[in-house]
Amino acid sequence: MSSRATGPAVPDGQYVGYRTMSARLAGHVFTGVWLLYLVAPVVDLITEHYSAPYRWGGVALIVAFSAIYLFAVPNWAYFRWYAVPAVAALAALAIVACLLYGGVGASTLWIFVSSSSGLLIVNRRWAVYAVLASGVLYTIFCLTGHVGSEDFLVNLLPTVLVGLGMIGLRRQFQLTAELAQAREEVAELAASEERLRLSRDLHDLTGQSLSMITLKSELAAKLLRRLPDGGDRDRALAQAEEVAAVSRQTLHDIREAISGYRRPTLAVEVITARTALESAGITMHDDAELTLLSGTFDPDVEAALAWCLREAATNVIRHSGGRNCHVSLARRAARLCLEVRDDGSGPAACPGEAGPDAGPVRGGTGLRGMSERLSALGGHLQVRPSGRGFQLTASVPEDVADLDSRQRRGATVAQ
Model confidence at 340, in pLDDT bands (50, 70, 90)? Predict the structure, then answer.
């Protein structure tokens, strides 16, 4: 998710977590407040006439339980690896407390075990199982510990309902984070469309005017050359030629800027392709490398691969008839390879499209255009059957795609 979040995010990137240290501190304080329910068992252990080992053993169990709970629960959005061990440790301490001390105080620990299970365990099915198991163990130890029926019923509902509520809370955080991610993608698409609109408007508004200025300046220079020689004529001729040169350079710069605006990137095309595929009822399974590698290699290579991704997604929507589309970007055999694979009806759904060794493409211009773009960079395009569907592979040499090596070669040529 957002890179503005402090602290390491969970591996699946679904949760934002706490954005500031003050928010993390507030999370610890909110969690610690609920541990005040364990003050009563501690007071009972200290005030009643128990032996020292019995008394301080019980206090140690509660302190250890509270420390693990206070560490694990507020940090639920980070370091997912500790979730199951933390829940297991809390359950083990609760079992030991119930076996050695029994009573209402020890049974109360299962409320905290249930709530931590619902919040820490990522898989919702297993989280529900853990919450129900906490309720079952609470019932067993209440029966074996001779807990009164009134106290048993008072804590039974919180033990189950708090855990289920924590599952819902975690799901709510997940949906909020997914909504924020969707908004970021929509904003990025809107920004891309706005850049394209600006580039078109810039070309339409200035291209023709600058071309006219260039032509008029060149015409004025030709007319000036027909006049008799003189200082004023030479100065006017020089000014007219300078105006023409400036106009030509400005027109060139504007065209370069427009081409830069229109140059697609993999990060944008992944979002566009996902939206288009989902609109067609096709699920897109994309590799994280598509976004992570965007902007890290030569812009011309990325633009070519981005055009290939756009055209391939269009072909999947129009011709495949599949339900899933897998997109990946990887470095293999000194080449940077973009693969788009669907699970559609196979080659019969793409008439006229060539395989890797079939020579020129005979069908539409889409594949031919992709092949030409890649050929200009020393790459090539392969289209072949893949299981039930079709697979398109666009590859370029890794030394061409590497931005640093391209820059070094350019500097060497310039020298």
Answer: very high
Question: Residue 325: phi, psi to the nearest 5?
Answer: -135, 125
Strand order, beta sheet including 324-332? 283-286, 324-332, 335-342, 389-397, 380-386
The Cα 404–Cα 196 span in angstroms is 28
Q: Are residues 252 and 272 in the same domain?
A: no
The reply to whether 203 and 316 lie within a common domain is: no
d(CA 384, CA 99): 65
Mean predicted confidence (pLDDT) in 368-386: 84
User: Are residues 175 and 104 part of one domain?
Assistant: yes
> In a 3-state reduction of DSSP, which class is residue 359?
coil
Instruction: Confirm whether pTM is higher than 0.90.
Output: no
How many structural domains does the chain have? 3
| Residue 249 structural domain | 191-262
- In this structure, are residues 317 and 277 in contact, taking their beta carbons and an 8 Å threshold? yes
- Is the C-alpha dihedral spanning 361, 362, 367, 370 positive or negative? positive
Residue 329, phi then psi, degrees to nearest 5: -135, 125
Indicate the average pLDDT of the chain. Answer: 76
Q: How far is Cα 35 from Cα 404, in angstroms, rounded to an integer?
A: 56
For residue 48, the number of C-alpha atoms closer than 13 Å in the C-beta half-sphere is 13
Cα–Cα nearest to 343, from 361, 320, 310: 320
Length of the chain: 415
Taking the mean position of all CA atoms in its chain, how far away is CA 302?
A: 19
The alpha carbon of residue 163 and the mean position of all alpha carbons in its chain are separated, in whole angstroms, by 29
**Percent of the chain with pLDDT strictly greater than 90:** 2
Give which of 281, 259, 265, 407 is closest to 329, Cα–Cα: 265
What distance in Å separates the CA atoms of residue 191 and residue 196, rounded to the nearest whole number?
9
